[in-house]
Design goal:
Glyco_trans_2-like; 2 domains; 7 helices; 39% helix; Nucleotide-diphossugar_trans
Length: 254
């Protein structure tokens, strides 16, 4: 199956995560590619030591970054992992069997459910109960759209893999808040075209409703303190989006 599958990982300063990500899949793929956004830590060094090929490209948005990298790949199929994701042993074996039995082509791509961790604890609720992503796909039938929360558009049917992907997004609270700020900056550009006058509703009500949605409707309270923090951060992310939009419209430096 190796000659059919390439591992692709988008990176920027992922030295604490990249080794485990690569090692979780390296022996079932033909090649490992990084699409790196000019890392300044040891990400590239670690990946190179493990035999990965590094494609360096200045970041503009998530979709263009990934779409460009996909064009550099020779294999028919792509396994895309974020640096904070890893194949579990069960998922790895499922992918091996899929290609070994030549059943991969019954679909053009595959959804994978994620087992999420935050503050090193499993998150079972908080809106992440059915968290799934397309991570295995045919290169020529798939492309990413949207600049911020990019989605993979697939020409053809998408199947489901049974086993879950390990996903641990936490690498320090300050890092997480900075990541939310980065997303909010990108979102402001998109929302500028579709959002009218900013009001009390955008700065107070929408963030509050987002918190209530994740904490009560999505049962974040069942995840304990991490669920409370996650629900608050979801509300805060909404607040930040409109702060950044207000700054954009008033030409205030970030």
């Amino acid at each position: 199956m190796k000659n059919k599958l390439t591992l692709l990982i988008p990176t920027k300063n992922e030295e604490t995560k990249i080794r485990d990500c690569i090692l979780s899949a390296i022996d079932i793929v033909e090649e490992v590619y990084l699409i790196d956004s000019c890392s300044t830590d040891k990400t590239v060094e670690i990946a190179t030591e493990l035999g990965a090929k590094v494609l360096t490209r200045k970041f503009d948005n998530y979709s263009d970054q990934k779409n460009w990298a996909i064009t550099q790949i020779d294999t028919e199929w792509v396994l895309l992992l974020d640096a904070d994701e890893q194949l579990t042993a069960e998922l790895r074996e499922e992918i091996i069997e899929l290609f070994k039995n030549n059943k991969q082509n019954q679909y053009q791509a595959y959804w994978v459910f994620r087992r999420n961790y935050f503050f090193e604890r499993p998150i079972n609720y908080s809106g992440y109960q059915n968290d799934k992503v397309v991570r295995l796909f045919k290169k020529d039938n798939s492309f990413y759209v949207n600049k911020v929360h990019e989605n993979l558009q697939v020409e053809g049917q998408i199947g489901f893999l049974k086993n879950k992907l390990y996903h641990n997004t936490y690498r320090g609270f300050d890092f997480h808040v900075q990541k939310l700020s980065h997303y909010a900056t990108l979102q402001a550009e998109d929302y500028n075209l579709k959002t009218g006058k900013l009001t009390f509703f955008h700065f107070i009500l929408k963030p509050g409703l987002r918190f209530l949605k994740h904490y009560f409707l999505k049962q974040g309270f069942r995840d304990g303190i991490p669920g409370l923090i996650l629900s608050f951060l979801n509300g805060y992310a909404t607040f930040l989006r409109y702060v950044k939009l207000w700054m954009l419209r008033n030409n205030i430096e970030k």
